[in-house]
Amino acid sequence: MNIHFKTALGYVRRSPFQALAATFVLTLTFFVATLVSVLGYSSSMLLKYFETRPQVITFLKDNVPVDQIAALQHKLEADSRVREVKYVSKEEALSIYKNATSDNPLLGQLVSPSIFPASLEFSVKDLSFAQDIIDEVKAEKVVDSVGFTAALGGESSLKDVVSRLRTVTTYVRIGGGVFVGMLALTSFVVLLIIISMRMVVRREEVEILNLIGATPGFIRSPIVIEALFYALFGAFLGWMLAFIGVLYLSPSAVAYFGEIPVLPRDTASLFGLFGIILGVELVAGIILAVGGSLFAVARVKKNR
Amino acid sequence: MVKFKDVTKRFGSVMALNDVSFTVDKGEFVFITGPSGSGKTTILKLILGEIMPSSGEVTVDGTNLHSSKSPDIPLFRQKIGTVFQDFKVLPERTVTENVEVALAVIGLPETQWNERVKHVLNLAGLGKQANLFPAQLSGGELQRTSLARALAVNPKLLLADEPTGNLDWETSDSIMKLFEKINSEGKTIIMATHNLDVIKKYKKRIIHLVDGKVSKA
């Protein structure tokens, strides 16, 4: 084993409680960072879902010729702002109604298909397109009226929902960022203290190494390796705990949010998301460890 | 090998060395003697580049330390072996590891360490103590460890600062015999000492200092 690794491991072995403190703080930091990242992802997906989800329903006038309906449907399908255009006949509308009122069959029996208008349903790729498209569709001769998905309570309430989600997402990102930043700063300070203590304890060794011609890089190497060990181990452990936690909670989250993809649905995408988070955290850990240890060494040297 | 030309070293108002000039040739074994505070250790520190002269020139193996940049100093020190009165061995490493550190410092490939370590430990008579820690060694063995570490890097010049200062006569004598043997192999040795028994027994050139001045060279 390389002499610097051996030396670094020796430091860890000789001061187990310092090592434990450093690892614990870094694990906590990366655990929270992983959760905040997942939360950021989920809130983004939630926002994206509601931004792209709005279903515009164009209720068609009665007795409109099929070719005119088909023409409007083709026109909408060709529009780049629109997606998933679907024709819903009167019978299908009744069926939807019956499904929606299945807990009270009497409601379904009291209506006939004729009272439900046929419609063209579609969603927009971005909420900002909605108003223009609605205005354009309203101008069509075959269209009686236009509305948003009933469950959302119409155009204005949808905007409110999206606005609220945007605010929540922003708060999650800013709040999470600040919290993770504070934890990262704590980790940095803990690393700084531990490395500074190490340098003070090693004063005699550093002096001897200086006298036998060790370069500053040689003297710093075990210190940096030790800090890297804490940071990388902490990053991996924190990430793994968060990953296990998310895996444990994901069935409940998926059940609660239904079709809203707050977490990737397939295993490969889920591992991909966590792989990216781990990669970013390992890089952050390296920066934290190298930066912290070099800063500590420089400070101890300066104060000597 | 070593040349001091009109070297003066002041520490504040204290004049540690005053206009000192001497040369030490390659392969020589020289004693630097003098009472405490006469400037013996200052001379060794100047040779090692630990401190710089206030005026004058110190040249070691053709390198003028005064004009060297500080990043060059470690590389320069790697060519010099140093033995200290207080041994300066790394307390948390075994005898073997203490020697290995010196080899790591000069960047010798790890594959060559074993052979080199065995050679210097046998030379220093530490074959049996190879895996012991400094706390388990006697004063003489600690000094031998320090010497083995200094020799491991195959230095051109060996500096020894009171190497027998903390040892009894018998141990001192055995250490001195080792230095003689090393010198006979062509290494230049500069030893600061005030051990009169050693100076009398091992008749070498003496640079005698009094109050920072060379009184006899």
What does this structure look like?
The complex is a heterodimer of chains A (304) and B (217). Chain A is built from ten helices and four strands. With 304 residues, chain A is an alpha+beta fold. Chain A has a four-stranded antiparallel sheet. The longest helix of chain A has 47 residues. By secondary structure, chain B is α/β, with parallel strands linked by helices. In chain B, the strands form two sheets. In chain B, strands 6-7-8-3-9-10 form a six-stranded mixed sheet, sandwiched between helices. Chain B has a four-stranded antiparallel sheet with strand order 2-1-4-5, covered by helices on one side. Chain B is globular, with a radius of gyration of 17 Å. Classes of the chains: A alpha+beta (304), B alpha/beta (217). Chain B: This is Cell division ATP-binding protein FtsE.
Overall mean pLDDT score of chain A? 83
In the predicted model, the low-confidence regions of chain A spanning at least 5 consecutive residues are none
From the N-terminal CA to the C-terminal CA of chain A, the straight-line distance is 32 Å
Order of strands in the sheet with the most strands of chain B? 6-7-8-3-9-10
Largest sheet of chain B: 6 strands, mixed
How confident overall, as mean pLDDT of chain B? 88
CATH architect. name of the largest domain in chain B: 3-Layer(aba) Sandwich
Number of strands of chain B: 10
- Proportion of residues in helical segments of chain A: over 70%
Shape descriptor of chain A? elongated
Sequence of strands across the biggest β-sheet of chain A:
2-3-1-4
Radius of gyration from the alpha-carbon trace of chain B, in angstroms: 17 Å
Continuous helix count of chain A: 10
Number of strands of chain A: 4
Question: SS-based structural class of chain B?
Answer: alpha/beta
Protein name (chain A): Cell division protein FtsX
Family (chain A): Belongs to the ABC-4 integral membrane protein family. FtsX subfamily.
Pfam families (chain A): FtsX, FtsX_ECD
Keywords (chain A): Cell cycle, Cell division, Cell membrane, Membrane, Transmembrane, Transmembrane helix
